[in-house]
Amino acid sequence: MALAQPRFAAAALLVAFLLPLAPPAPAKTPAQPRAVSARGALDAEENNNISVFKRVSPSVVHITTLAVQRDFFSLRTSEQPSGTGTGFVWDDSGHIVTNFHVIQGGDRATVTLNDQSSYPARLVGAFPDRDIAVLRIEAPRDKLPAIAVGSSRDLQVGQKVYAIGNPFGLDQTLTTGIVSALNREIESVTRRTIKGAIQTDAAINPGNSGGPLLDSAGRLIGVNTAIYSPSGASAGIGFAIPVDEVNRIVPRLIRDGRFIRPALGVTAGPDNIAKALGAPKGVLLVNVASGSPAAAAGLQPFGRDRNGRIVQGDVITAVDGQAVADLDDMLSVLETRQIGEKVTLTVWRAGQTRKVAATLGSSD
User: Fold this and answer.
1) Please, is 160 exposed, middle or buried when counting C-beta atoms within 10 Å of its C-beta (0-12, 13-18, 19+)?
2) Catalytic residue among 59, 95, 101, 314
3) DSSP, res 149
4) pTM beyond cutoff 0.85
5) Is 37 a catalytic site residue?
6) 362 assigned to active site
7) Which end of the chain has fewer CB atoms surrounding its CB within 10 Å, N or C?
8) Neighbour-count burial for 238-247, b at 16+ CB within 10 Å, e otherwise
């Protein structure tokens, strides 16, 4: 029996431990929160962040796209959300600028303004090669404060920037950063190269696409369009289409409903042909359309005679003194010109270089 006493003692202690404790005596004084310390004035950077957001956020919109789906069994149709993104007010006529890939694949779009009022949007025009689209909504003009437009040609690495958007569907988010690099190249949805892109470390996540990249004065300097991220979320490397490009394209989309590129009326051969023929880098012509600006300028394509021998043609190596390494380069230069404008082409043929004038026609 003596050996069992320790177990009885332990059991008694366990029972005592499990019994409810007596309630604590009421406090003599009520619990009080800590006194709040004075914060002091916000610093200049914080004040500028707040000021830019307050001024620009009314111009930033949330875009939701819907796609029509048909049930396989009942054949009934329904609208399903297909994506979200960001845009901004271009003018008080209701034009909204965003990325083309934000609305791509959608059958209908809705634009939600800063005051949470929503309006159906119609597509005015798009230029997929530059991932730019313009929508239009019918809303009161006092709800459509146009964003202030800046310049991208004079940007410098290290400048402070802001991004406002709707990442992951969350409305009106502000992130800050700097211009990390300039003149980057990114790929559009059509696989065309977008040159001159702005790289920034301001956090840009899915849903920020189509939103404004701003300078410290709150002016538009780019349209956030892509991120580099293995995980799909911000990794500190985002890209924006420069505003000078946007400001050149958007008015044409509003006027014409699409971007009509000035053209020379030529067809280019692949790079491997140029290498095989020993031609310099440029646009090697394999066809010149009859009656085209190139034909009027006397340009000739490469070809073969009746014996199968190569007939030397022309290679365009520069437009207005700007070197072009391939067709993509030349198209990018021509997009900055107007139909009917004269350009000077630097042309190579059989080892000889000359300059010729051409009047640009329409790509239609």
Assistant:
1) middle
2) 101
3) B
4) no
5) no
6) no
7) N
8) bbbbbbbbbe
Q: Please name which of 192, 176, 193 lies closest in space to residue 184, comparing C-alpha atoms.
A: 193
Residue pair 125/133 in contact (Cβ under 8 Å)? The answer is yes
Structure tokens at 177: 């950063």
Does residue 91 carry a catalytic annotation?
no
- C-alpha–C-alpha distance, residues 155 and 146, integer Å: 22
Residues in Cβ contact with 354 at an 8 Å cutoff, skipping those fewer than 6 apart: 346, 347
Nearest to 96 by CA among 138, 57, 136: 136
d(CA 225, CA 183): 15
Residue among 209, 215, 329, 332 flagged as catalytic: 209
Yes or no: say if 243 and 250 are a contact pair by the CB < 8 Å rule.
no
Cα→Cα distances 101→133, 164, 226, 327, Å: 9, 18, 10, 24
Query: Residue 264 gets which letter from DSSP?
Result: -
Strands 132-137 and 95-98: antiparallel
Catalytic residue of the set 131, 201, 215, 314:
131
